[in-house]
Amino acid sequence: MGGRYSDEWHRIHLDNPRDLVPESNMPGYPWLARSPAEAGDIEKKLKVLRVLGHPYTDEDVAGARKALAGKTEQDALIAYLQVLGTSLKAR
User: Fold this and answer.
1) SS3 call for 72
2) Which of 65, 69, 73, 89 has the most CB atoms around it within 10 Å of its CB?
3) Coil, helix or strand at residue 78
């Protein structure tokens, strides 16, 4: 679940998983740290996700391109991993 490990732990793990988990058979994804996050159609994506039920606000959509400025694909993936399971509603 999200928040279990630090962002730095995820960076190391994504670059070379065996640095942290010697028995891991997960491949490394070091190029994600060098690949800029794609912001070209981020507003459109957030609007579609909003239609599907995600509570993005107009301010979230308007600020999305700026929020992605200078971020890498690795940064985006780590942000995603850090929120996994944190939005579940109690039944």
Assistant:
1) strand
2) 73
3) helix
CB atoms within 10 A of CB 48: 12
Instruction: Tell me which residue has tokens 């944190």.
Output: 86
Residue 88 exposed, middle or buried by CB count within 10 Å (0-12, 13-18, 19+)? exposed
Four-residue CA torsion sign, 19, 25, 26, 28 = positive
- Give residue 40's Cα distance to chain centre: 17
Which residue type does 6 have? S
Summarised one tens digit per residue, pLDDT across range 3-33 is 889 999 999 999 999 999 999 999 999 999 9
Burial classification of residue 87, based on how many CB atoms lie within 10 Å of its CB (0-12 exposed, 13-18 middle, 19 or more buried): exposed
> What single-letter amino acid sits at 75?
D
Q: Half-sphere exposure of residue 63, counting CA atoms within 13 Å on the CB side?
A: 6
